[in-house]
Amino acid sequence: MKKIEKITPQSEDFAKWYTDVIKNGDLMAYGATKGSIIFKPLSFGIWDNIRLHLDKEFKKVGVQNVYLPLLIPESLLTKEKEHLEGFNPELATVTEVGGKKLAEKYFIRPTSETLFGDFFKNEINSYNDLPLIYNQWVNVLRWEKTTNPFLRTREFLWQEGHTMHSCPKEAQKLTTKMLNIYKKFVSDYLAIPVIDGQKTEHEKFSGADFTFTIEAMMKDGKALQAGTSHYLGQNFTIPFDISFKNKENKLENAYGTSWGVSTRLLGALIMTHGDDRGIIIPPKIAPIQIDIIEMFASKEPKVHELALNIKSVLEKANFNVQIDNSDKGAGFKAANSEIHGTPLRIEIGPRDLLENRTLFVRRDTLEKFYVPISEVKTAAKNILKDIQSNLLASAQQRLVNNIVNVNNFNDFKTAIENGKWVLAAFDGDATDEVKIKELTGASTRCIPFILPITPKNNVCFYTGKKTNRYVLFAKAY
Amino acid sequence: MKKIEKITPQSEDFAKWYTDVIKNGDLMAYGATKGSIIFKPLSFGIWDNIRLHLDKEFKKVGVQNVYLPLLIPESLLTKEKEHLEGFNPELATVTEVGGKKLAEKYFIRPTSETLFGDFFKNEINSYNDLPLIYNQWVNVLRWEKTTNPFLRTREFLWQEGHTMHSCPKEAQKLTTKMLNIYKKFVSDYLAIPVIDGQKTEHEKFSGADFTFTIEAMMKDGKALQAGTSHYLGQNFTIPFDISFKNKENKLENAYGTSWGVSTRLLGALIMTHGDDRGIIIPPKIAPIQIDIIEMFASKEPKVHELALNIKSVLEKANFNVQIDNSDKGAGFKAANSEIHGTPLRIEIGPRDLLENRTLFVRRDTLEKFYVPISEVKTAAKNILKDIQSNLLASAQQRLVNNIVNVNNFNDFKTAIENGKWVLAAFDGDATDEVKIKELTGASTRCIPFILPITPKNNVCFYTGKKTNRYVLFAKAY
């Protein structure tokens, strides 16, 4: 068993805090390939739960899961130029097998628009075949220069949805619908509030007509893109020759969308809720929801008996429960539970046996209170529910408190330096966005669908021109 | 919507039948990379159910899911020589990124013993850290020369379990335990009976001390290895330097196992149950268990109303149900349901409305019978249960009927030519096995734990020497 090492406080060095908590919380180990990580049982358990719950939501709107190959032949990826250019520098390339050079190169998928394009071509003949609403849960590779566990790794896990429609309106409606599913899921399960909106031309997906996004605020003030949904129009269906006979019996190219969330969500979860004692996992997504800690158990075998009874009662109520009956000290066990982010811990010792009670400790507020043994089930249910909503409310509060409006570049710089998000009137173009990022480190996150705060003017903070386009800026992961 | 094409009868050309039914049954499409396939919703749905049910069994015995990287650095894979030699010719190799040559080559995992080895090394210090019982559900690549959808593809999906133990006995016990889980699952859910046993030295996994296997019999008489469980001893823990302090406080190398089943199981399922009308999916694993077919629905809107009511009743009883209310003819709809292997179809037409009844058609026996509307739920439940056990019983019967015992090489050849499995006394070595395969096409499948038939003698059919080793031979996929 590993020792618990010191965790750097968030206020001292947030990046160091992050590395400390993911290591101490047994979330990951570094892989043998640089920039890759191993998902240990706790982090993979969270991802498995994300998959489980999100997949249910997908199925409600008719999504069907499929699996397409890992490798993309060079000839296929080069069909859509903008898309290729966007991914080219990051493509891991298979050139040989068993030491022998291959006739054609293969790229490990960075995303699968081109593979789906090639697949859809043969599946679609008439408008009767549409829509096709497919999704896959897979690994993808993007050979990033700088990596950060969960947030940016060379290989990551994600789901990628790919759909085909007979008209733009239906496809665009689905683009919105999927973003809404993401927004609701991330809020309901991960307790992460987000701002939803549209990416600027400069920040949209390579190959999309437009990109919708949900943006989350980390505890250090940085933004994290938590999910995207793209309307692809006919950008892939023209080069891939995906067409159908429409109701007028004329050939028409289909209209596409794609959308995805990835294991970045684990990074978002950690940096939204974690504190100086470790990570905090929202109850609805936690692989272990309750730790039962036996205090000084060696002195009293009946403590273990009680722990088993309580575990059984809680499991019957569908909670995931774990007992710590190791011979470590009481302080170690408490810290160990906290560092792993278990939302609720229940301590029982010889004294509690006599008093017919247990000690509940909430991971979010660290509050402690006694609960009679007979009330454990009801209390656990209520507390976990309360922890879930408290985590969301705290994050929501922080989000709203840290978005400011500015009307000039000086104030913009100061706000960004102070770790704020800026919502401002902005009519600049891609060149301006590049320049602003160079000067301040901030990028456009989105043009929000609903303004999170009320801006005080309609003059662009950068160009000085009048505009009604309000854009959200922040430093981002 | 696709037309249904003619299916070649099994008796005419089994290989052609297989290709016909997987294509017509919408199970797969060929991928852009040669030797790769696309899992369409129906086949992926079956695999998803396999994962769901098998994972539950794994968790009952303490298996924890993790995720390790796709790529294996060259330096890592070369650590265990026998293992490397076994996989070397099939390794897809990444040599460049974005057109630039990499300093080290990376292999796409053909299996992950070496990655787990590198991971375990840092996780294990003392006997207190053991056992570690990990598993991952992932894609792997083996660049096979000849491929066959589901049975042998360059990329496939599987689960691979990897465990570490403090003594050989415990590791060996787990090797057996996992094989038993496979055997029970494949029998209970996929309705595939198997022979379990140990692989000969010649056929064992590259890097194992010994390999256990379950072998299934396809309808053409060929064998299919449906799952394996390997005892690795210290073969990986010595080169990877995985050691722990034992109870005597001395350093000792740990003892490993690995075990897996793959999407080959889909091929096994198709070739165990399918008939000349298409595939047959056992109810317990079927993504769609019941097709409700509206007959001549256009004439009577109340038919659709009834279909919806029945669907709702069946869904409340936890069945997966699908309605066909398309305007195709009755014959097409029935054939379409049969070709997709839905275990039960319920037909309703205007006449049935009047008679307050539905027509049940079993996919396995093709029996038809009327069921009063009020009894649909109970009847569906009973029939599906019966289909499940009937599929297993038929396959079991076929398995037992097609294993023969021989005592000389001539009879051996004849039996193999006739598509039989042979159980025979055999004391030959690897050279003999190679020779026998060359002459007859048959390989050793396993040394069965329990003899499926009673052999009549103890003289090796090949060498003529006395032996108590009884080995199962068959042609295999």
Report on this structure.
- Two copies of one chain form a homodimer.
- Chain A has 477 residues and is of the alpha+beta class.
- In chain A, 34% of the residues lie in helices and 27% in strands.
- Chain A has helices at residues 14-24, 41-60, 74-77, 81-87, 113-123, 168-188, 264-273, 301-316, 330-339, 350-355, 376-401, 409-417, 430-440; strands spanning 28-30, 37-39, 64-65, 71-73, 92-97, 100-108, 132-141, 155-165, 194-198, 210-217, 223-233, 243-245, 251-253, 255-262, 290-294, 321-324, 344-348, 357-362, 368-372, 403-405, 421-425, 443-448, 470-474.
- In chain A, the strands form five sheets. In chain A, strands 3-7-8-14-11-10-9-22-23-21-20 form an eleven-stranded mixed beta sheet, with helices on both faces. In chain A, strands 16-15-17-18-19 form a five-stranded mixed beta sheet, with helices on both faces.
- In chain A, helix 2 (41-60) packs across helix 6 (168-188).
- The two termini of chain A are 33 Å apart.
- The mean pLDDT of chain A is 95.
- Chains A, B: InterPro entries: aa-tRNA-synt_IIb, aa-tRNA-synth_II, aa-tRNA-synth_II/BPL/LPL, Anticodon-bd, Anticodon-bd_dom_sf, Pro-tRNA-ligase_IIa, Pro-tRNA-ligase_IIa_arc-type, Pro-tRNA_ligase_II_C.
- Chains A, B: Homodimer.
- Chains A, B: It catalyses: tRNA(Pro) + L-proline + ATP = L-prolyl-tRNA(Pro) + AMP + diphosphate.
